[in-house]
Design brief:
The complex is a heterodimer of chains A (about 270) and B (about 220). With about 270 residues, chain A is mainly alpha-helical. Chain A has nine helices and two strands; from the N terminus they run αααβααβαααα. Chain A has helices spanning about 5-20, 25-65, 70-85, 100-115, 120-140, 160-190, 195-210, 220-235, 235-260, and strands spanning about 90, 145. In chain A, strands 1-2 form a two-stranded antiparallel ribbon. The two termini of chain A are about 10 Å apart. With about 220 residues, chain B is mainly α. Chain B has a domain at about 130-215. Chain B has helices at about 1-15, 25-60, 70-80, 95-125, 140-160, 170-210. Classes of the chains: A mainly alpha (about 270), B mainly alpha (about 220). Chains A and B meet through helix 1, helix 2, helix 3, helix 6 and helix 7 of A and helix 1, helix 2, helix 3, helix 4 and helix 5 of B.
Chain lengths: ~270, ~220
């Protein structure tokens, strides 16, 4: 039951999805669509597990005062503030007492963290109850905004979109931009023409980079653009195809091993 | 609100750039904000995309259509996934996991076999000799390119075949494969450098134009 049933399920669903590919009947496609929907639905529950894991790891760091534990508060507040924004939306002209609601929920989170790590559990649970009561009260009496769990209005909440636009996007873009400095140092080490292979790497990279350089002498831009296009369309395409074919065959082999129960690592121990 | 947003974005940008000096508390705060906010963002986006759109609307349709009761099985499997939180009955979570692993293995096996293996092989072998449809003459430039592609694909595959020792003609073919691979890695490295440079220019442009208004 603990180990044999999962292997049987893997075989049944794996074999069904494989055979289904060759059966263009509508009943086969009907089941196929449902199975895909199930996968997505299970995925969201798995995401909930992931969020729980993040919360658990962060609280554990705070409890044991591990290295950089103080930043775990920032992570948790960032996580929960987005969840709060995602489940609420404005209906009136102003936000009314919404800031108080958000602050009360953040206080609730803080109290819950300390209730799970502190010795004076009762005190923190009492404060959690008070914070929860305040947030409930505000949500009940304030008509300028609403909570929405089963409509996607929260995705249009300006606070939610502003956090995505002015917090998430700039950090993400800057983190990738930061790599420009490190990639320059990596380029210095990689681009040394020590042998034929390193020279090929160097020449290909220089030609592709020159293509994006707007300051080139007369006549060179066309030559560089043509050479770069040829590099991308011929040798690059050939090697890419070899890699892609290798990946495809590797996935087929691994999938077969999984379906036939030869590869069992995903099941864990126990 | 937008002015406040630009200031926040600018300070976060500078906070991330501060890593160039060394790993410091400001960078760590920005990093932690990113982890938390992105986890929350994707949790909410996926919640509405999967659970709301796929499950809730399917089970409780508002347009008068018949409810899809089969979706309840998906939700049930999802709930079983949460059993992992319990140390006693955590093994039940293997059932939905087995479903996902089996279904995706079967699905991807066929999809990747067709798209990655069969389609790529047929694209490589098709029209190796390119002929002008009007004049019926061979276009030598494109034909040489096609032949080079065939040589590159075969030699690249030989290089990735590790069940036979790379010696003799097999080893020399694998060597040709490495040349093609090095050109590809070089080209991709060049592209990556330029895309990172482009992002860096974008962030600096944001700081000097949108935040400080030093550029017009």
């Amino acid at each position: 039951m603990k180990r044999q049933l999962p292997f049987l399920l893997v075989f049944i669903f794996g074999a069904f999805m494989t055979i289904q590919y060759y059966v263009p009947h509508e009943s086969s496609e009907f089941v196929y669509t449902f199975l895909l929907d199930w996968t997505m639905i299970i995925g969201i529950f798995a995401l909930a597990l992931g969020i729980w894991s993040l919360y658990h790891v962060s609280v554990d760091k705070i409890q044991h005062k591990k290295e950089n534990w103080i930043y775990s508060y920032v992570t948790l507040f960032g996580l929960f503030i987005m969840v709060v924004f995602g489940f609420s939306y404005k209906v009136g002209d102003s936000w009314g007492m919404y800031p108080l609601f958000v602050i009360a929920l953040m206080a609730l989170l803080y109290c819950l963290i300390h209730a799970s790590i502190s010795r004076s559990k009762g005190f923190w649970l009492g404060l959690s109850g008070a914070a929860l009561a305040v947030s409930f009260g505000v949500a009940f009496f304030d008509d300028s905004w609403k909570l929405a769990f089963m409509t996607s209005e929260g995705l249009k909440n300006t606070m939610f979109t502003n956090f995505a636009d002015f917090v998430l996007t700039p950090i993400l873009a800057t983190m990738f931009a930061l790599l420009a400095f490190f990639i320059a140092s990596a380029a210095y080490r990689a681009f040394r023409a020590r042998n034929v292979l390193a020279s090929l790497l160097l020449i290909a990279a220089i030609i592709v980079m020159l293509r994006f350089n707007p300051y080139m002498p007369f006549g060179l831009p066309e030559l560089v653009a043509e050479t770069s296009s040829w590099l991308m369309n011929v040798p690059n395409l050939a090697a890419q195809r070899a890699i892609v074919i290798g990946i495809g065959l590797g996935i087929v082999a691994t999938s077969l091993k999984v379906i036939l129960g030869i590869e069992r690592g995903y099941m864990g121990k126990g | 609100m937008e002015l406040l947003g630009i200031w926040v974005a600018a300070l976060l940008t500078l906070g991330i750039f501060s890593f160039l000096y060394k790993d410091n508390p400001v960078y760590k705060i920005c990093e932690s904000i990113f982890i938390g906010v992105s986890a929350g963002y994707w949790a909410i986006a996926n919640f509405f995309d999967a659970l709301h759109k796929k499950f809730w609307i399917g089970v409780f349709p508002t347009d008068g259509s018949d409810p899809d009761y089969f979706l309840w099985f998906g939700a049930l499997l999802g709930v079983l996934m949460l059993m992992r939180l319990s140390s006693k009955i955590g093994w039940i979570a293997r059932w939905p996991l087995a479903f996902i692993v089996g279904a995706t293995a079967g699905l991807y096996m066929m999809l990747y076999f067709v798209s990655n293996a069969m389609n790529q092989v047929s694209s490589t072998m098709r029209d190796v000799i390119v002929v002008n449809s009007d004049t019926q003459l061979i276009i030598w430039g494109e034909t040489v390119g096609s032949i080079l592609i065939v040589i590159g694909v075969v030699s690249g595959l030989v290089y990735f075949f590790f069940s036979k020792e790379h010696k003799g003609i097999f080893g020399r073919t694998a060597r040709v494969g490495i040349w093609f691979l090095m050109i590809t890695f070089g080209a991709h490295f060049g592209y990556t450098v330029m895309s990172r440079m482009s992002l860096l220019i974008g962030r600096i442009d944001f700081l000097f134009r949108d935040w400080l208004h030093l550029l017009k």
